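Internal ticket - ligand job 338, phosphoenolpyruvate:
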Amino acid sequence: MIVEMRAGSTSAEIDDVVERAKSLGLEVQLNLGTERTVVAILGSNTGQLPTETFAVLPGVDSVTRIMKPYKLASREFKSENSTVSVNGIEIGGKQIVIIAGPCAVENETQINEAARLVQEAGAHILRGGAFKPRTSPFSFQGLEKTGLELLAQVREKFGIPVITEVVDPHDVGLISKYADILQVGSRNMQNFALLNSIGKSKCPVVLKRGFSCTVTEWLTAADYLLAGGNNQVILCERGIRTFEDSARFSLDICSIPVIKRFSHLPIIVDPSHAAGHHLMVPSLAKAALAAGADGLLIEVHPNPKEALVDGLQSLSPANFTKLMTELEPIAKSIDRHI
Ligand code: PEP
Ligand code: MN
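stdout (structure tokens):
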């Protein structure tokens, strides 16, 4: 249930709404907008509660039921776009934010080279997995803590923020010490213990779409993070599984305008895992920008042929540099910049 306060309602009036909800055993989340405050009333039995419970209180403008399963990620709760700030880089604003780097941190030379070259080409944030969720237990699982230390080293050396994946709820505290953004991978989008743990942290988080999940399930998963108190949430479309098998996944370009319509959260796109092949990555990256994505997450490796993970879909330094120059005019044509 969403309680919209009148413009200029007093803090005592807002407190009254909060107190009434709490006295009924319900949770609340406030959106202190620039013009008016919105109070989300959350709980499993709000459906049974008459809207008058809150409509009669002074300062209340309207009370609406949200029929969708997600509440805090919805436009009804927050009509203005949210932005997430990472070391002064704003994700969800006019700037298109480019995150690039290897699938996995492999060794000191590789991650140093990667940081240097993506930064030189104009990327804003470095990616690199230290804990890799692999489909097979026999595949390279990442350097784990050593990988985090290497990421922290290059972050310091190049002054570039880093994003890395968390696969275990118990590692959230550790990884947030080394990373500027936590990544929840596609295979973990509905790992609710992990989402709850990240919800309690204040670290920005990229929530990748589960490849078998609907947009509604994705936004409802985002509610776990938001309900925990972490409002630094960025969504990432990375392709879904369909009957089509000519690419690794089917990039759901539609989800970009759909998210923009139904949610206030910023959305970035990972064209690499959708394409599965570096030849298709530039086209998908350009399509994503044109469709309104707030940023891109692209796999780039100093030497893709030698990559331990996802080499085929990783852009070479030269191809990444070329793509960056091709993205600029697209950003400009939609009144944005890189
Ligand atoms: C990755 O970003 O390297 C990754 C494993 O992606 P996804 O979770 O989208 O498969
Ligand atoms: Mn990868």
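Auto-summary: The radius of gyration is 21 Å. The longest strand covers residues 27-32.
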